[in-house]
Design a protein that fits this description.
The protein has 9 helices and 15 strands. By secondary structure, it is of the alpha+beta class. It starts with a helix and ends in a 15-residue tail after the last helix. The strands form 4 sheets. Strands 3, 4, 9, 10, 11, 12 and 13 form a 7-stranded mixed β-sheet that branches. It has one domain: 4-Layer Sandwich (L-amino peptidase D-ALA esterase/amidase).
């Protein structure tokens, strides 16, 4: 009898979760037009072409997976995992660097990356209070991988943003299994964006934010390397779309009350953004740090204020097999020469463009979400964005061209 009751309770909980997710999705679909990425709207950022998917997965070997947690009225959170390559990352570490724009955040594992210049686990993104549980899960994941039987130290890398506006963050809902599922779901195809994974409960510029991605492919004459960016957006400022002052035109922007002579009561201020940059160019940690710094220009271009309470971090890594660092280095040496520093400028332009576009995609693909305490954060109205961008001549005249060529 007791077993039967437990089974019935488990079924009821599962059914309730499914109903909550269905209700959330139905509300999202009812509250706005179909979500589209920047280029699908005719908005082109920069001068370089995108990769085939216009995503971080255009960098060969990089995979992304999500685990979205929507439960009851107040759990709106999740996990996003970025896996640098298909092998054992601990055994074949990748060169990496961390850049700090403003350090009001908790980037777990950053000091060892800074010191040694390598990344030895997948990168996990989640909410602030779950970052430590995610780090523990990454350690467990690494220890149980075949070939890691003698490993006694692991440096997990976990980035976070605070989704407490929509999520019951004190519930500490993210568990070890959720991280495992995000990593297991990682694939090299298109990357779902918006209110998904770690982005489920995030807000940006006063609208719904979340996960966004974009890429750039350098011309063959510039060695043809790829640069991909994935962002977790949860910050404020004055939204700029390709030069159009969309935030001001929509009347939702940082310091609006103050400049209007009213008492400052601004929710579009503090927040955070994690930027993950991947490239297949043969770069060492020092060069990757230089590359990561240019991602901050992309945040500035789209209107981020990098305020006192924000946490802007960039994680940059190279997937190039020739610059990987084996765990057991005896008798093994680097097989590829890194790029000359004077060849980095095209990559700098690529990461700046891709970061800006990734932020826009996180906004444009996000949907309305209602969460903790009945709060609703609306998706940015794409019809108005298009009108404003046409007014300021940002929308491309020919929207029929292939997406890669826009």
């Amino acid at each position: 009898m007791r077993v039967r009751i437990l089974i019935l309770c488990a079924c009821a909980v599962a059914g309730y979760r499914m109903l909550a997710e269905h209700t959330l999705r139905a509300a999202q679909q009812a509250n706005g037009m179909q979500r589209q990425r920047a280029r699908e709207l005719g908005i082109r950022i920069g001068v370089l072409q995108t990769g085939e998917r216009n995503a971080i997965t255009d960098v060969p070997g990089v995979a992304v997976g999500h685990r979205t947690l929507v439960e009851g009225d107040d759990i709106r959170t999740g996990v996003t995992a970025i896996v640098p390559h298909a092998g054992n990352v601990f055994q074949q570490k990748v060169p990496a660097a961390v850049v700090v724009g403003n350090a009001f955040g908790k980037l777990v594992g950053s000091t060892q990356v800074e010191e040694l210049g390598t990344l030895e686990t997948p990168i996990v993104l989640t909410n602030t209070l779950s970052s430590f549980a995610a780090a523990e899960a990454l350690v467990a994941y690494t220890l149980r991988q075949p070939g890691n039987d003698d490993v006694r130290s692991v440096n997990p890398l976990v980035g976070e943003c605070n989704d407490g506006r929509l999520n019951a963050i004190r519930a500490l809902r993210v568990e070890r299994e959720d991280v495992f599922k995000a990593i297991s779901a990682a694939n090299t195809r298109e990357v779902p964006e918006g209110s998904i994974g770690a982005g489920t409960g995030m807000s940006c510029f006063g609208w719904k934010g979340g996960i966004g991605t974009s890429s750039r492919q350098l011309p063959v004459s510039l060695d043809g390397h790829a640069v991909g960016v994935l962002v977790l957006t949860n910050f404020g400022g004055v939204l700029n779309v390709g030069g159009a002052p969309v935030g001001k035109e929509l009347g939702r922007y940082y310091l609006k009350d103050a400049v209007s002579g009213r008492t400052l009561n601004d929710s579009n201020a503090d927040g955070s953004c994690i930027v993950v940059v991947a490239t297949n160019a043969p770069l060492d940690a020092r060069q990757l740090k230089r590359l990561g710094k240019r991602a901050l220009f992309g945040l500035a271009a789209v209107g981020s204020s990098l305020t006192h309470g924000s946490g802007e971090y960039v994680i940059a890594f190279s997937t190039n097999e020739g610059v990987r660092v084996p765990y057991q280095t005896e008798g093994k040496t680097q097989t590829t020469t890194t790029l000359r520093d004077d060849a980095l400028s095209p990559l700098f332009q690529a990461v700046r463009e891709a970061t800006e576009e990734a932020v826009l995609n996180s906004l444009f693909m996000a949907t309305d979400v209602t969460g903790a305490n009945g709060r609703t954060v609306e998706a940015i109205p794409l019809d108005r964005v298009v009108e404003i961008c046409k007014q300021y001549n940002v929308i491309q005249a020919d929207r029929r061209r292939p997406l890669r060529d826009r």
